[in-house]
Amino acid sequence: MTTPISRLPAPVRAVARHPSAVLLVAQLVLVLAYPGLDGSTFGRAVVGVVQMLVVLAAVWAVRRTEVLTWVALLLGAPAVVLAVAEAVEPDLGWVVVASAAFHVPFYFFVSYALIRYLFHDEKVTRDELFATGAAFTVVAWGFAYLYAAAQVIWPGSFVGWSSPDASTDLPWFELLYLSFTTLTSVGLSDIYPVVAQARSLVMLEQVAGVFYVALVVARLVGLTRSGAARD
């Protein structure tokens, strides 16, 4: 028999009612923890698996149909396995590409699920506000994996101040940093694409970032106006 949320301890109730907040906080904590964990195989495996499990839990919490759950599981389960494989063999090209082949559509699908959750009715809950941030960070993760695959398929795709040699692949965390600066339109230019295909991917992320902000702002303004009209 399922236990009602109201009977659960207060901290558990908070987590159950705000899964998007858990996802957002977990991703930001992983961003802070990654530099300290990246030096070991075990640390990289912990980061990858915890990230995937948190996202899977969030998708389960905000699902609206069984299709969302099944698609997330079909993409997410192999991604968890490949996250561990990539932690063990981070320089093995086919492992990086295979990992990206599941991580990229998985993260983009999660973002779609969160946006769908945000738009499913005419009112915005506290958790839906957290979902706007969580969806944004999930997209950044997806593009980071896309960049990782790109530099395997097109060697020398990216260069940066710490790796000026185009023959050296950038670490995944630097690609995540590039993804966040691109998606937020900060454009610090200390890491940048030099191959045409890589530049095309970066341009897609720039468009996605601008479109996402416009979409969320339009949604919130529209809800504010409809609420004022009802009053």
Flag low-confidence runs: none
Q: What's the β-strand tally? A: 2
Distance between the termini: 41 Å
**Helix fraction by DSSP (H/I, runs of at least 4):** over 70%
Major sheet summary line: 2 strands, antiparallel
Strand order, sheet with most strands:
1-2
- Supply the helix-strand structural class: mainly alpha
CA radius of gyration is 19 Å
Shape assignment: globular
Structure, briefly:
The chain crosses the membrane at residues 21-37, 43-62, 67-88, 94-117, 129-150, 170-189, 201-221. This protein is mainly alpha-helical and 231 residues long.
Give an overview of the whole structure.
It is built from eight helices and two strands. With 231 residues, the protein is mostly helical. It has one domain. It has a two-stranded antiparallel ribbon with strand order 1-2. The mean pLDDT is 82.
Show the helix and strand layout.
Layout: H1 10-17, H2 19-37, H3 41-62, H4 66-88, H5 93-118, H6 126-153, E1 158-160, H7 172-183, E2 191-193, H8 196-230
Antiparallel strand pairs: 1-2
List keywords for this structure.
transmembrane, 8 helices, transmembrane helix, membrane, mainly alpha, 2 strands, two-stranded antiparallel ribbon, Potassium channel domain-containing protein, 75% helix, K_chnl_dom, 231 residues
